[in-house]
Prior knowledge:
alpha/beta; Rossmann fold; 34% helix
Amino acid sequence: xxxxxxxxxxxxxxxxxxxxxxxxxxxxxxxxxxxxxxxxxxxxxxxxxxxxxxxxxxxxxxxxxxxxxxxxxxxxxxxxxxxxxxxxxxxxxxxxxxxxxxxxxxxxxxxxxxxxxxxxxxxxxxxxxxxxxxxxxxxxxxxxxxxxxxxxxxxxxxxxxxxxxxxxxxxxxxxxxxxxxxxxxxxxxxxxxxxxxxxxxxxxxxxxxxxxxxxxxxxxxxxxxxxxxxxxxxxxxxxxxxxxxxxxxxxxxxxxxxxxxxxxxxxxxxxxxxxxxxxxxxxxxxxxxxxxxxxxxxxxxxxxxxxxxxxxxxxxxxxxxxxxxxx
Length: 327
């Protein structure tokens, strides 16, 4: 019987084998990598029964369900090659005794840079400036760009990414406030030049609010009609967390009615966006839509694969996995 790795990602097994060999660490002589990305759940359930490792799907389309987890009780590790893992039934994996790991921190820099860029683009009215100038217009005054300096930036979710955003905002002269279910220590607040606000106050005072929280039962729909109604008419919201954190229909209404000034969305409740999604009908100057690219830079993709492959080869050699999400 071979040592099997079941990959649910759309990755070439030859590439995965090459990356594993490239670590220079010992590998089982009978190692086999099977691509299960296009198989149905029944076929996957049969494959994982005697598998050693499962590599999760970074597109989040192939879910690891309770049935798959229960069939995979002999699996030593489910390695997700991304930071997000909402498509994996973590509770079932824990019940089955299967460690699940992600690549925490691999895209922190990338998402933080995107977030600051998004805030600058909205303050400088970059989309309108580009659209009108490329159309042969010269609307230097009409564009009405503003400065980031002096604005209040609210960070919702002060984990790795939230902190990285705060670090990059400090030189711009913004006032940084944050909300998280866990308050920072006073030393950390000084380090990141930030102060804690309850959610209601943060939403009300922020000129720019950026979302960096995980998707949980508590955060799903946390930015809805009530929260959007509290925001300034000149405020902008940036979502690089998960699409379901914002009530999208409520956001569309707030933008259409000009109750807030704009939004930058890199994540959506439905990915990819359907052609009938109401977000696509909004005025181009009030919304920036990008295809979940904040954390998908060339550099972060390299870090993600490096962390994932290192974890897999370590477990194959009997070591404890890093970056566990269900310890």
